[in-house]
Amino acid sequence: MTKKQEQESEPVPQGQKWFDNIWFLFLASLLISTLIYNVWGIVDLLGVPPAP
Amino acid sequence: MLAPERIWWKPLGRMEKTWLTVAFVWCVLLTIMMPLWYFLGKQNVPTETYRTTPTEYSAKVNEFVEKYKIGEETVNGIPLPLVAPPPGSDVYLRASTWQWYPIIQLEKGQEYRLHISSMDLQHGFSLQPVNINLQVLPGYDYVATIIPTTTGEFTVVCNEFCSLGHHTMVGKMIVK
C-alpha cells in the first residue's frame, strides 16, 4: 500500500465530522441563540415583580 | 481556491494554543469584572425593576408632583412643575413623547430613589453633561439609587429615537 493510499483509508476524526456537517452547525447556532437570547430573556422578564 | 486536505482535524499549533489561552483568560477576567464592578464602580445601572402599567405609573407621578411641588419652570416654552422631594424619598420621572415630566430639584449629597418609566414607547434617559444613560421602557419601573455629587442645572435628553419630536424631548434636573 502506497503512502497516498494509506492516507485515504485513514478514518476521519469525529471532531472533523461534526465541523464538516453544515446542518449540525446550523441547528447548533439556532439552539444556542434561542437559549441565550430568547429563553433567557423571557425567563428574566417573567421574574420581574409587580410594582409595590 | 484549493480544497482542504482530506483530514484537516489536527492537534492545535503553538500559536493557536497561545491565542486561545489569551482569549480565554481575557473572557474569564471580564466575567469576573462584571459582578466586581457592581460593588466597586460608582455608577451602576439599576438592578431594581418592577412591572407596572402606564396608568399606574402616571398616578404615582401625579401624586408625587402634587405632594412636593414648589413652583414652575419652563422648558422649550412649556411650563412644567418644579418638584423638590425630601432626601431619601422616592422620586418619579415620567417619559412620554416628547417630554420628561416633571422638573426635579434634589439636594447635593443626599440619597434618592429615582423611578423612571415610559408612557408610550422606548425612550433613553441621558443626564448631561455628567453622561448617565438608562434605558426607559413602557411597562417597567426602573429604580436607580442616586446621590447627586455636584450642584447645578442638568439637562435630561432622550437618546433613543422616539419618532418625529425626539430632538425636542428635553428635561431638566436641578441640584442645590
Structural class designation of chain A: mainly alpha
Classify the helix fraction of chain A into a percent range. Answer: over 70%
- End-to-end separation of chain A in angstroms reads 80 Å
Strand content of chain A: under 5%
Helix content of chain B: 10-25%
Q: Strand-and-helix sequence of chain A, N→C? A: HHH
* Quaternary structure annotation: heterodimer
Order of helices and strands of chain B: HEHEEEEEEEEEEE
Shape of chain B: elongated
How many domains is the backbone of chain B divided into? 1
Structure, explained:
The complex is a heterodimer of chains A (52) and B (176). Helix content of chain A is 73%, strand content 0%. Chain A has helices spanning 3-9, 14-19, 22-46. The radius of gyration of chain A is 22 Å and the shape is rod-shaped. The model of chain A has no long low-confidence stretch (mean pLDDT 90). Chain B has 176 residues and is an alpha+beta fold. Chain B has a single domain (48-175), classed as Sandwich (Immunoglobulin-like), CATH 2.60.40.420. Chain B contains 2 helices and 12 strands. Chain B has helices spanning 14-40, 54-68; strands spanning 48-51, 69-75, 78-83, 90-96, 99-101, 103-106, 112-118, 123-128, 132-136, 140-146, 152-158, 170-175. A 7-stranded mixed beta sheet of chain B has the order 2-3-6-12-11-8-9. Chain B has a 5-stranded mixed beta sheet with strand order 1-10-7-4-5, covered by helices on one side. In chain B, strand 4 and strand 5 (99-101) form a beta hairpin. The relative contact order of chain B is 0.16. Chain A binds chain B through residues 7-8, 10, 12-13, 15-16, 19, 48-52, and chain B through 6-9, 49-52, 56-57, 140-141.
